Amino acid sequence: MTQRIAVIDYGMGNLRSVAKAVEHVTAPGDEVLVTDNPALILNSDRVVFPGQGAARDCMAAISDHHLNRAILDAAQSKPFLGICMGQQVLMEFSEENEGTELLGLFPGSVRHFPGGRGPDGTLLKIPHMGWNRVSHNHDHPLWGNIEEGSRFYFVHSYYVDPDDGDLIEATTDFGVTFASAIGRDNLFAVQFHPEKSADDGLQLLKNFVNWNV
Amino acid sequence: MLAKRIIPCLDVDNGRVVKGVKFVEIRDAGDPVEVARRYNEEGADEITFLDITASSDNRETIVHVVEQVASEVFIPLTVGGGIRVVEDVRRMLNAGADKVAINTAAVFNPEFVREATTKFGSQCIVVAIDAKKVSGEGEPLKWEIFTHGGRKPTGIDAIEWAKRMADYGAGEILLTSMDRDGTKIGFDNKLTRAIAEAAPIPVIASGGVGNLQHLVDGVKEGAADAVLAASIFHFAEYSIGEAKRFMQDRGVEVRL
Question: In CATH, which superfamily holds the domain spanning B5-249?
Answer without folding.
Answer: Aldolase class I (3.20.20.70)
